Amino acid sequence: xxxxxxxxxxxxxxxxxxxxxxxxxxxxxxxxxxxxxxxxxxxxxxxxxxxxxxxxxxxxxxxxxxxxxxxxxxxxxxxxxxxxxxxxxxxxxxxxxxxxxxxxxxxxxxxxxxxxxxxxxxxxxxxxxxxxxxxxxxxxxxxxxxxxxxxxxxxxxxx
Length: 159
What we know:
By secondary structure, the chain is mainly α. The protein has one domain (2-158). It is built from 5 helices and no strands. Helix 1 (2-21) packs antiparallel against helix 3 (48-77), helix 1 crosses helix 4 (83-110) and helix 3 (48-77) crosses helix 5 (130-158). The longest helix is centred in the middle third of the chain and has 30 residues, at 48-77. The chain is elongated, with a radius of gyration of 17 Å. The model has no long low-confidence stretch (mean pLDDT 98).
């Protein structure tokens, strides 16, 4: 059952990203490295205020939906009512999401899809290297150790 839940959680993650960018990678410019962003600004394709607004809107909705889904899985679907089991599940889901984002989203989807190439920036690298993915995901692995405690505490309080 937990494997199915992990698959559904990662599918929701992917859906949220797809909905966030819609039909244009330009809508997700906040995901890109600074050199790509600066090129896009220089080309006049968008401006900083628009990107900041889109980032805030996406991150808020993403955070709310993913947190609600995780709390629902732990508290409603799995019926966990005590901290340590909730912590274990929260940590598992957050770590899988973390590495899924780095490997499947960043390296595979972004790295192998023409959708993510913004016209006029073709010569600017935008896909993270394996070294960057490992470094970033390693740091986030540590962050989620604390984040899982917050999620577990919320799950226990709510359910």
